[in-house]
Amino acid sequence: MTLSGSGTEGDPYQVWTASDLDEVRNYPSAYFLQKANIDLSEYANWEPIGAWGSPFTGNYDGGNFTISNLTIFRSTSSYIGLFGYTNNPVFNNIHLTSINVTGNWLVGGLVGYNRYNISINNCSVYGSVEDLYDGEVGLLAGRLERYSSGYTTTVSNCFSEGTVKGIYALGGLIGRLWNDATINQCFSKANVIYTSSSTYYGYFGGLIGQIASTTIKNCYATGSVYGCEQVGGLIGYASSVIVENCYSIGSVSGNGEYDIRGLIGYKSGTVTNCYYNSETSGQSDTGNGEPRTTAQMTYPYASHIDGTYVDWDFSTVWAHDTSGTINNRYPYLLWYAPAPRFRRLTYKVPYKDESNNIYYAIVRPVRPTS
């Protein structure tokens, strides 16, 4: 035992280094708190924490530090990610950067596969993930499911950016999301790329590849999606869903014949006040999301007879990108608003003249451009 703490909720194990993180696998039901940025470069092929028969069931809080340079190449293995196989875990404040993860099936940056309950909050992933055969791939997670009744999946305030490649059920954030799930205030800037020449694989979405019995609110996707069938800028395949106040703007295309649409490829359920960019997506369908032009979707929002962003909460959930510096004038989520570089608008700066008389200048700092 090298970890400080006792692994309880009140005294979690402290994770300071890459070797500390590697030791998490030895205490799969404990509480952990990350205390520093961690670089996994020394691990050429990380072994996922948790496996079939020995899942991770604990609570990991990343402390808003980063975990960088996660590399996994296990072309014949399933349940691939920083955490491979989990049951009933809680993940908070984890931020993965510069990841490169490849597996056979159920591949994610943070989680490969979860069964039963899971809660993921304020987590992000930058990098690339890929499956080589069986699919279900996302930068945050491969598949999250409620295996039996009485369990729930909750994902909130999470985002991804990078590339998702593979054959089946690909999503910029999550590959496959199954039963009694709630996704709120999440987004993806990832590009989704189908890597087979076959014309019968399905489920490709800018945010999620395939979902069922799920509620999605206040989410968006900006990356391009190239798939086969059931392809959408936000979701590829959606069954028995509630989708509210969402949008997508990336290009949408596929080499199959069926269900290639701007926002959601295939849908059963309700879609309310959701939009996609008909110019950048290359699609023009209605019913699974409403088409709008770039001018109608970006601030100051050109008029449309039915409106855009109708009944969206621009007080506590969304914000207008009036300057175009945060999200290219598309609405963004308030929780993601960049922290101000300066907390005060002006400063009184004293200076002396040649006679040592003291004066005060009122100075307004200039925001750095990079």
Summarize the structure.
With 370 residues, the chain is mostly beta strands. The chain is built from 3 helices and 35 strands. It is 4% helix and 48% strand.
Structure overview:
There is one protein chain. The chain has 370 residues and is mostly beta strands. It has one domain: 3 Solenoid (Pectate Lyase C-like), CATH 2.160.20. Helices cover 4% and strands 48% of the residues. The chain has 3 helices and 35 strands. The strands form 4 sheets. It has an 18-stranded parallel sheet that branches. Strands 1, 2, 4, 7, 8, 10, 11, 13, 14, 17, 21, 25 and 29 form a 13-stranded parallel sheet that branches. A hairpin with a 5-residue loop joins strand 34 and strand 35. The longest helix has 6 residues. The chain is globular and about 65 Å long.
Layout of SSEs?
Layout: E1 13-15, H1 18-23, E2 31-34, E3 38-39, E4 59-61, E5 66-68, E6 71-80, E7 83-87, E8 90-92, E9 95-108, E10 111-115, E11 118-121, E12 124-138, E13 141-145, E14 153-156, E15 159-166, E16 170-171, E17 174-184, E18 187-188, E19 191-194, E20 202-205, E21 208-217, E22 220-221, E23 225-227, E24 229-232, E25 235-244, E26 247-248, E27 252-254, E28 260-261, E29 264-272, E30 275-277, H2 278-281, E31 290-292, H3 294-297, E32 318-319, E33 332-333, E34 347-352, E35 358-363
Parallel strand pairs: 1-2, 2-4, 3-5, 4-8, 5-9, 6-9, 7-10, 8-11, 9-12, 10-13, 11-14, 12-15, 12-16, 13-17, 14-17, 15-18, 15-19, 16-20, 17-21, 18-22, 19-23, 20-24, 21-25, 22-26, 23-27, 24-28, 25-29, 26-30, 30-31
Antiparallel strand pairs: 32-33, 34-35
